[in-house]
Structures are given as structure tokens and as C-alpha cells.
Design goal:
Two copies of one chain form a homodimer. By secondary structure, chain A is α+β, with helices and mostly antiparallel strands. Chain A contains six helices and ten strands. The first copy, chain A, is elongated and about 65 Å long. Chain A binds a DNA duplex (30 and 30 nucleotides) through helix 5.
DNA sequence: TATGTAAGTGTTCAATATACACTTTATAGC
DNA sequence: GCTATAAAGTGTATATTGAACACTTACATA
């Protein structure tokens, strides 16, 4: 291939992956301790450098796989971070990707053997470079996404209960929702199909399992929809002086 | 500065600018004929290469200024395009930015002397590489943006009339809105301040000028809001066979 | 001064969102 | 096996918001 652009600067391009999972009623983030200098040993997102023979998506998937063993994760672009001194090692621009995944036992082990850890988004430690800023942006994007697209398919197991789904929404948006209104709204979208089976163990009564209707889910994910509810009024707390 | 990342590939990073303006009741896009190989002479977005000593935003502004003379334009990141063969010249990843601007006489001349042209978004020619795809994405982003953020500040002159504002919304979303409902909704946001002055010339009666309340505008731009209206029912068209 | 053209204005009805509390179910402990 | 407990499940009345719809006003120009 002829080279037309000889005279222009070339740049290191990093790919950083922000992976959210939902576990134990909490929204979690996958982090690891950086294995090379600079900032070796500090908490970091999964990151690596783009190669010349791979597209951005391929690169991001490769980086994630190398660092955690996770494969077949669909990630979306979040933002490009390109301040001059964001990486003290060398001028690097970083393309941040994010994904939502359901964490199964297998993934959990894979991640662990690679030294990755799931951390609650409420307890994110200090990360290297501008990675905290990236996580911030990803969280804000994720929150606004819940209002415009269905969510859950990527974060919950195939069968899940309505209380689980509600607690997912509550964990992402950090707010309490009214049970009746939540059910009514989510059911009337037609996204969910009720199964004839109950979850046992989590409660005495047991909650019915549901599944997503895949076609409807994809349709809404494509076209967008609207899902916003007022936060449940918290019971008044009397402040005594 | 110590170099830690010697062994990694480096890449050409392009910055492409998608500039929307509103003029004569139409949403327009700024294009120019590419001045260098490959694809010299074909229609293109304003693009150039990132330099090592500038941030992404700085680079995008520089490119836009060099190619059109426009300055002080605030652009937002749209997306990164990084398919392997998107640029036949050489492997290049491109960060696309977009902006909305109000086109004044001065800008118009500046752009013209630089060989740039304002083209209606309804008549976009074939562009080089993946630039049509970039414009597509920018348009979709712009449309969804009208539902979540106030718009107009960047596209209209300081003083504008309600019919102008409505026609901006209609041009962006390519739909007709009901005059009374539009006015009611936009006025009750508190975003607008009515002036004691009428626009003359555009109509016999003349429409009152309004300005944006800058604080409210910034507040809503930051927090987001909701502005969505059903499209006006088009009068029935009888199809005779 | 008559005519034409776009600006401006309110109300009714329908749909949707919110607030709110008791009943049901099954387990586990006695 | 009876009882206590803890979470799941369910419906309605009211308030709010959104949509549909047509005539009057102001001014310029002929």
C-alpha cells in the first residue's frame, strides 16, 4: 500500500475496558493491579495498546481477553481520552470501551486466576491516570442508558425474578423504586415473559422467574424507548434536636 | 520523559469535524473538496492529523481553523472510527467531532474563501472513506440530543423568534410540530426570555424576538431535560386511483 | 382601505404517572 | 403441625401531563 501520510505524527493508542457486572444486588466493576511500569501495582482498568493489524473493537476484545480470560464480550465505545499528560509513561490517547456482563462462576474464576477483582461501584479505589474519570463517565452513560434502552439482558442470568431486575435498576441508579409501579411499567413493555417456575431460597415465598423476550428486547435496544420513574418517596425522618 | 512503551505500534490519528449550521430554515453541513491525495478533489469533512503536542480538542479546533478559518468552535466527540481499511492511504484511526454553529455573514465568507460549502443535510453528496457514515451517526446523535438537551443556543443568532426556533427543531428532526403545543412546552421550561422587539420582514405581522436565559440553558444542558413531542398529524391525503 | 399572510392564543379530553397498604405464600423454628 | 416471619404479589383513585384542535390579531402591501 502506498504511503501518503509520511510526514504526520504517529501515536500510541491505548484501549481501556470498563466492565460492569451485577452480583449480590450490587453493581460491580472489574479492576486489576497493573503489571508493568509506570504505576506498576496500582489499581487499573483493563488496558493495552492497539496493534496495527486489528480494528478498535478487535483490539479491545483482545486486551480484555488477555488480561481476564473473558471472551465474546460486546463492548461499546465510551469516549476517547487524549489529554497530553494523561499517561506519564508517554503521550498516549486512550479509547475507553464499556460493557455490561453477567458474571457466572466460570467468569469469576477466570478473572480471579488473572488477578482481576470485582469491586462495588460504591467503593472504587484510586485508579491510575485518568481511569477514575473514565469510570465516572461510564457510570453516567450507563445511568442515562437505563432511561433510553432496556437493560438487564447483559447483566442478569437468563432466568431472573422481578425483584432482581428491580434491584438492578436501583443499583445502577442508586435510588429506591416503588415495587408496584416498577412491575406495572416493566411488564406493560412486553419485554418480559413469565415462567412457571419460582426461585427458591432467596425468600420463603419465592419469586417467579421471568425471561426477556429476545425480539422485543432487540427491537427496543435498537429503536430506544422510555423508562423513567420517579424515585420512591423516602419515609419522613424526624430530626430531633 | 522516560519512554516505557517502546515496543508498541503507533498510529496515525485523524480528526474529522462535522459542522452543522442552520440557515434559511434548513439544517446544513459544512463540506469541502479534499486538497490532497488520496481522493483529492472529492467531497470530504474537515479533517487533519493529530499532532503530538496537542490534545484532541485542540487538534480538532486547529484542523477546523486551518481548513475554514472558523475559530472558537466548541466541538463534542462523536465516535472513533477505526476499521482497518477505512482510509486507503494508510491505516488511520479517526476521531470524529461535531459542532453546531450559528452561521453569520463573517463565517460564511471565511468558509467560502477556504473553499468550504454549506450543503443541506437532505442533499449530502457521496463523501470520501467512511465520512457518510460519520455524518449519519452525527445526525442520529443530534436528533436524540434534541430530546435530552436544550438546543438552539449554538445554532441560532442571539435574538430569534419562536417560529425560527420551531423550524430549527423541525429541520433537525424532519417533522412538523403543532405551533401551540410547541410554544407552550418550550415556554414553560423557562429557557426563553421575550424581548420587546419584533422581527420585521419575514412576515407582515412580525414575530417577537426571544433570547435564551443563559443560566437556565447551561443548567439544563448539564443536567439534561426532556423535550419530546408527538409529530403533528398530517392532514389526510386522499389517494385516488 | 381592503386583502393576504404569518403570528399568536386556550381549552377540552385522553392518557399516563404517582401515591399508597393489605394479602398471599412458603419456609423455618418451635 | 402450628406459628411466626419475611418477602412476593396485587389494584385503585387522583393528579399530572400530553394531544388535538380553529379562530383572531397585526401589519404590510396592493
Amino acid at each position: 500500500m502506498a504511503k501518503f501520510y509520511k510526514e504526520y505524527d504517529k501515536h500510541l493508542v491505548a484501549l481501556d475496558c470498563i466492565i460492569f457486572g451485577f452480583d449480590e444486588g450490587e453493581l460491580k466493576l472489574l479492576l486489576l493491579k497493573r503489571k508493568f511500569e509506570p504505576a506498576k501495582g496500582e489499581w487499573s482498568l483493563m488496558g493495552g495498546f492497539l496493534k496495527s493489524d486489528e480494528s478498535l473493537d478487535e483490539g479491545a476484545r483482545r486486551v480484555l481477553h488477555q488480561l481476564t480470560g473473558l471472551s465474546d464480550i460486546y463492548m461499546e465505545q465510551l469516549h476517547v481520552f487524549g489529554e497530553l499528560n494523561r499517561d506519564p509513561g508517554e503521550r498516549t490517547i486512550s479509547i475507553a470501551f464499556y460493557a455490561l456482563i453477567k458474571v457466572d462462576e466460570n467468569d469469576r474464576k477466570l478473572a480471579e486466576t488473572h488477578g482481576a477483582h470485582w469491586v462495588s461501584v460504591n467503593q472504587i479505589p484510586q485508579l491510575i491516570f485518568d481511569h477514575n474519570q473514565m469510570v465516572d463517565k461510564a457510570l453516567r452513560t450507563l445511568r442515562s442508558r437505563t432511561e433510553r434502552k432496556p437493560i438487564g439482558f447483559e447483566l442478569l442470568p437468563e432466568k431472573f425474578t422481578l425483584p432482581q431486575l428491580q434491584s438492578l435498576y436501583e443499583a445502577i441508579n442508586q435510588e429506591q423504586l416503588d415495587k408496584r409501579n416498577f412491575r406495572k411499567r416493566i411488564l406493560e413493555t412486553g419485554l418480559l415473559e413469565k415462567l412457571d417456575e419460582k426461585e427458591k431460597g432467596a425468600s420463603k415465598k419465592g419469586a417467579y422467574y421471568y425471561m426477556f423476550n429476545k425480539e422485543k428486547y432487540l427491537m427496543y435496544a435498537e429503536m430506544g424507548f422510555h423508562f423513567q420513574m420517579k424515585v420512591k418517596k423516602s419515609p419522613l425522618i424526624k430530626i430531633t434536636t
